[in-house]
Amino acid sequence: MVDHDPAVRHGGDLAAAIARYGTGPEGWLDLSTGINPHPYPMPELPPEVWTRLPQADAEAALLDAAAGYYGVDGAAHIVAAPGTQALIQWLARLQHPADVAVVGPTYGEHAAQWRLAGHRVREVTDPEEGADASVLILVNPNNPDGRIIPRDAMLDLADRRAARGGLLIVDEAFADVMPEASISDAAGRPGLIILRSFGKFFGLPGLRLGFALAPLPFARRIRAALGTWAVSGPALAVGTRALADTGWIQGMRARLAEEAAQLDEMLKAANLSIAGGTNLFRLVATEDASGLFVHLARRHVLTRPFDYRSNWLRIGIPTGGRHRRRLADALSG
Known about the structure:
The chain is an alpha/beta fold. The protein is 39% helix and 17% strand. It has 12 helices and 13 strands. Strand 12 and strand 13 form a beta hairpin. It is globular. The model is unreliable at 1-8 (pLDDT under 50).
């Protein structure tokens, strides 16, 4: 085993921010997570989703809804899990020790979990730098810079891995706001595993729901590893409803695009350089990102700094005029 610190710094640690910077009458404006600030409206749930074990027909309905939403030819290629974090951890543990390349900088749990599982992990800046690795992992659109790798390039990477018995793992956690960047419709292709998050776009991370889209042999292995009743009854019910709600999905994509554009104008007015992002967050490049983080935190606005890049700060999308004004005042104050 590799001696490695498993702790990865994440956004959303509001308790730590309160402990360090206190709080005020307005409370905190948490822009540190890249989660949709407009959550899907919770439907009224039947009592049995709480009082009965998760039912097979409810899981089948969820997988059918996911197949329709992600454009997958057959629900058998989809595995539902209690969040994509669980899938990241299980994928690393289901593979024999291998050479793994992670295209970064990106979501830190990928490299961390494969190291913890005993794999030889290196981080590369371009997929071709990891051409000789048995397992190649990339996030598309990337977190935190929003980088997009073209569809044909990703499918070629998958085919080359498959020819050598390897894997391409594509984390599409933020693809809901950029569906044109997704290759989910290629699910089932040999050598390709796609991860999809439910909580980020639908604004319900506490529900803990995510999906792996995989060739049948891998789908069976992942499903067996997760075990029976991996997804709760409430998550099955809410996920099924939300994934089929095309009106809400289309309207939310348009709303987030408009609000991201408004955030762009606010950041430009503050003379901040936008280094990338998606419609769920923007990445700012500034010489003193840590100073800007502290400046905002003292005004009870929480953002996301990065240990590995001292000039980066990620800012989520503020919702509504009051939150936008609060961020604008904090940036200029």
